[in-house]
Write a structure and sequence with these properties.
The chain contains eleven helices and twelve strands. The protein is an alpha/beta fold. The longest helix is centred in the middle third of the chain and has 17 residues, at 141-157. The protein starts with a strand and ends with a helix. The strands form two sheets. Strands 2-1-3-12-11-4-5-10-8-9 form a ten-stranded mixed β-sheet, with helices on both faces. Strands 6-7 form a two-stranded antiparallel ribbon.
Amino acid sequence: MAARKIVCLPGDGIGPEVTAEAVRVLEALPLEVEVSEHPFGGAAIDAVGEPLPAETLEACRGADAVLLGAVGGPKWDGGAVRPEQGLIGLRKELDVYANLRPALGEGVDLLIVRELVGGLYYGARGTREDGTVFDTCEYHPDQVERVARRAFELARSRSGRLLSVDKANVMETSRMWRRVVSSLASDYPEVELRHGLVDSVGMQLVVDPYSFDTLVMENTFGDILSDVAAGVTGGLGLASSASLGDRNPGIFEPVHGSAPDIAGTGAANPTAMLRSLALLLEHGLGEPRLARSLEAAVTRALDSSPTIDLGGLATTSEFGSAVLEALEAEVVAL
């Protein structure tokens, strides 16, 4: 088999540090991979004046998977071009419409499927002459159907329970969302479909996260509720994500930001990035057994060598080494 092409976009702040640990682990796996690194985000703005250079986008399109660190920071606040524009643009260009945000913790194992290339973040926006500012939430039924089908399929592979989240008592887009999702239920008879209002689901995630399994929702709701789910299962430092489409390579990235205040100190926790690498192995390269091995190794390292944010003393690279040590035993056991 030809070497799988992995494009790394380290980005800004702690992005390069956690990405380096992921590459160490990736290259230690029994896989033939070709890893290349490209400028992205604020680092790309500094280098060439734009957050998503054409060469970077072309490399991503030709890859089997994209591993992304983090973007943004106060250095670029207020500028005409922002690092986050590169991230939104990359998602749109690769049409990675389904964002998988697992949340794992004590007794909690849930998966949020967030629609990623529609809604408020991509709708019409502007300022009227009277000073009114607007952002428009827009969805086509086809956009809802494709992400809902992905969620049904994922729910079928888990517990067979799917909760569709909306605000159908107020928003027209949500009423359409609920109609489309409901119309698909007969195609997945083994999946139990329920609907919930976003405000009620948000409260329930805090008071009883154990009751959830697979959830699907539009872009903004998913952005917010996935962070809530991360908060009740240990924080953003542990939260991974995968952004998937139908044809193009997926984007795999930690949920946390660039944390410029700790960049270069060795205090960054690479858990979220390493869990994102596990998602890359499963959904990007079709290697679920290696993904399970890496997940198990990360869990062992969290117990043996917790980082500073978790009350331990391990640096970023020391945690990576602990994962490599645990992974060696896991891979041998395959």
